[in-house]
Each structure stands twice: as structure tokens, then as C-alpha cells.
Fold this sequence. Notes:
Strand content: 15-25%
Helix content: 25-40%
Bound molecules: zinc ion
Amino acid sequence: MPELPEVETVRRGLAPVMEGARFAKVEARRGDLRWPLPKDFAARLQGRTVEGLGRRAKYLLADLSSGEVLLMHLGMSGSFRVFHRDDESTPGRYHHERAKHLAHDHVVFHMANGAIVTFNDPRRFGSMKLVPRAALEQEPLLRALGPEPLGNEFDAALLARACAGKKTSLKAALSDQRVVAGLGNIYVCEALSRARLSPKRRASTIALRSGAPHERAQRLVDAIKAVLDDAIKAGGSSLRDHRRTDGALGDFQHNFRVYDRDGKRCPTPGCGGTIKRIVQTGRSTFFCPVCQR
Ligand SMILES: [Zn+2]
């Protein structure tokens, strides 16, 4: 499932063609993705301009001139492709690849600037929803989300407060979208490795008894921000279905320290440990038992 860096990569790919652009025509080729598409979906978009394209956790938020916000989620296998009307006759690998995916092209945005933005989703766990801008704060999909990890407000004090008193593991706490939004299995494992903290460590141990941050909380916050920044720079990680909007694959999987590397040597200089896989709350965790304490 795409995590924050993959969704941010998609946002950056869509922004240049969608921001400030008008929907000339919208095709909804089926009535539902994970949930039914909004009533009169195409009609509510056509003729409207995208005033801005933002992101909250793993949601893309297109601010529309109608006063509504289009919320889009990639689900497990959703991806967007962008191409320009002018390129349509260009032969090559790109079109060859497109052909086999055509059956899963469920929503197509024809922008007035000539860009064609296609949402493809073989497993249909993705979603699109229209919400009045004024009601966004009460939106159930967004309301329970914790802080954005790349935002200024996400710091050691905030993370320590969220983890203080928690008896769950650090892995479980960081995977909880109410504690911090947008992290999943990959980036939680990678951040814990960079912070040299064990995923099995009790979450409460990053806070002092007073609730103030332990030094570990600062290390963890720094690691989370760094791994997300690096992953966004690399265009996300390409596992299963994540692609950039130009069809290219992200590269960050080549930089994994621990994820999916069980049995391999730990990359921490001088460590010499071997990456281990364990199962926590039903998910695989990868870590080095030597340097992650
Ligand atoms: Zn190690």
C-alpha cells in the first residue's frame, strides 16, 4: 500500500497539470471504486477549476472553484497517469504499457489545458469523494488523523506526548494513524532502523515519567523526517503497484536499510548484525537486533 512518500510523489506529478486547470470533461467509467463515486460526480467537476492540490496523510485534496474539495485515495493499487493530447500519436513503450492497463482505467480527467489524467486501479480499493470545503474539518476520513510527520508541529515533544503511557510497541504506535499520519510498514521499519530503536521497545519509553520527551523521541522524529524526505526525493518506493504519474518507478527500495532484507548484513557501520524478520500485530517487521535497542 502506498505510504506518504508515494502519495506525495503522485501529488507532485499531478500538480503541474492540475493546479489552475479546468476540468473540460470527466469520464467515470464505472459507478464505484472502493465506495460508490459521489452522486453526479462528473457534472460536479466539469467546468470547475482546481485551485490547489494538497495532501493530508495519504489523501490527495483538490480544492475546486465550486467550493468543494475532491478527496482522492490510492488504496492498495491505485495510480494516476498523465499524458498530453499532443503526445497521443507518439508510439513507444509507454503506449504498449498502457494497453494492458486500459480495463482498469476507471476515471479520466480531461483538463482544459490538454492534459489527460487517468486513474487506474486494478483492485479498486481507491476512493474519490467530494466534500464541501467548509465541512473538511468534520470529514470522518480526515478527522482522526494525527499530525503530518513533515510538518513543523511534529516534534519530539508531540510524539512523546502521544506515546506516553502507551503499553504497545513502538512499531504499533508509529503505525497508528492517530499518533502520526501517513506512515506504514516500510517507513516505520526504516525510521526505527535509522533511529537505532527496537520495534519491540515499549512506546512509552520515548517519554520521561513527566511526559517530556526522552532523547530517543528526538532521534526518532529526526529519523522519520529524514527517511520521508529521502524517499520523496527518490520518487517513493516501487513495490507492487506504485508508479509516478509519468509511469516511471520510484527508486527508494534500493535504499532500504532493513525492509525486506532479512538474513542480510545490517548496513550500520561497525554493527555486523543480521537483519531479522518478526511478525508484530499481523505484519512483518524487519530490524537489526544488534544496533536497534
Ligand atoms: Zn545493526
